Amino acid sequence: MNLSPDEIIFWQYGLFKLNATIVFTWAVMVVLIVGSKLITRRLSMGLERSRWQNLLEIIVTTLEKQIEEIGLSQPRKYLGFLGTLFLFVAMAALCTVIPGYQPPTGSLSTTTALALCVFVAVPLFGMEQQGVGSYLASYMKPTFIMLPFNIISEISRTLALAIRLFGNMMSGAMIIGILLSITPFIFPIVMTVLGLLTGMVQAYIFFILATVYIVAAMRIRKPNPESEE
C-alpha cells in the first residue's frame, strides 16, 4: 500500500521523475477543462436545458451565494479562482471510484501548491481593493511591533491549509486501502462512499477557508451611521 501518490513512479530519468501525483493532477485538470468545454458549448437560455447545464448552474449559483454570504459583495469577481479550487479538490476526490486512481490531494506537494495559490491570491485581492500602500500598512496595525506576528500568521495559516487537506485526504485513502487488504468485499465499498462524501466536505471547507481569508484581506469597513450624524 502506498502512503502517497508520490511513491508511484511511472517514469524516471536521472533526477526527473513522473509520479502518480503529476499524472493524476494533469488528468483531473484535463477532465475539468474538457468537461467545461463540452457543457458550455451549447448553452440554452430557454426552458429546455441539458442535465449537465442544470448541474453547472446549480454549482455556480451555490458558490456565488456562499461567497456573498461570507462577505464579498461581488461574488462573480472571485468565482473563477475560488470555484476552480473547489472543483479541483472535489473532482480529485470523486475520481477515487476509478480503479488504480490515486487522488493527487493525497500528496503534500499538491495541497501545498493549492495553499500557496491562496497565499498569493489573498494579498493580490487585498491590494486591488485597498491599494498597495494601504494593504501593506495593515500589517503594522495597531503598532509596527505586530509586523512579524502578522507575517507569521500569513505563513502559518497557509501551512495549516496544506496540512489539513493533505491529512484528511491521505487518511481516508489509507483507511480504504487497509480495509481492502483485510476485507475486500462490502465494507470497503461503504468506506469508499464515505470517502467520496469526505472529499466533497474537504473541498467545501477549503473553498470556505480561502473565501474567509480573502474577506479578511479586504477589511472593508462600513461607515458607522451614528458617526455621520
Describe the structure.
- The chain is mainly alpha-helical.
- It has one domain.
- Helices cover 71% and strands 4% of the residues.
- The protein has a two-stranded antiparallel sheet with strand order 1-2.
- A hairpin with a 2-residue loop joins strand 1 (9-13) and strand 2 (16-19).
- Mean pLDDT is 79; it is low at 220-229.
Quote the beta fraction: under 5%
| C-alpha geometry | globular
Helix content: over 70%
Q: Which residue ranges are poorly predicted, with pLDDT under 50 across at least 5 consecutive positions?
A: 220-229
Placed side by side, the strands forming the largest sheet appear as 1-2
Order of helices and strands: EEHHHHHHHH
Largest sheet, described in full? 2 strands, antiparallel
Distance between the termini: 68 Å
Précis, in short:
This protein is mainly α. It is built from eight helices and two strands.
